Amino acid sequence: MTEPLRLTDLSEGILRTTFRHWARVARRTTKTATEFMAALPGDVIRALRPPAAPLRLESGIQSHADATRIALYVHYSPTGRISDMVRRQLALLGQSGFAIVFISMAARIPESDWQAVRRLCALVVQRQNFGLDFGAWHDLLPEVKRRWPIPDELMLVNDSVLGPIHPLAPVIETMRAGGDGFFGLTENLEGGPHLQSYMLLARGKAAVGDLMHFVQRLHISGSKWVLIQRGELRLARWMRRRGHRVAAVFGYARLVRAAVAEGAERKRLSEAHGRLGGLERLSDEEATALLYRWPLSPMHHMWHLLATRFGGPFLKTELILRNPWRMPGVEDWPTVIPLDAPCPVAVIQAHLETLKPSAQQEP
Question: Given phi > 0 = left and psi -120 to 50 = alpha, else beta, which region is 234?
Answer without folding.
Answer: alpha
